[in-house]
Design brief:
single chain, alpha+beta, four-stranded antiparallel sheet, 2 helices, 29% helix
Length: 73
């Protein structure tokens, strides 16, 4: 799916925001979207041509606080 409408859906339906982005050499960007309000999280793999695929999701998992620790290391 195109990235923009997928991210809009994560915001409108799950109140998720972009938390972190990792560059996956040759594969694209791995994006973590999560919501402190709903406890939901989604991981997207976004290719250079702006198509995204959901590679993981769940509830009561990663939150911004957890991933701030990961990013700082």
């Amino acid at each position: 799916m195109e990235r923009e409408p997928l991210v809009e859906q994560l915001v409108s339906e799950f109140d998720e925001q972009l938390i972190a982005v990792w560059d996956i050499s040759g594969e694209g960007l791995l994006e973590l979207h999560a919501s402190d309000h709903t406890g939901s999280w989604t991981v997207l793999l976004t290719k250079s041509w702006d198509l995204s695929c959901v590679v993981g999701d769940g509830r009561d998992g990663p939150t911004q606080d957890i991933f701030e620790d990961v990013i700082d290391t």
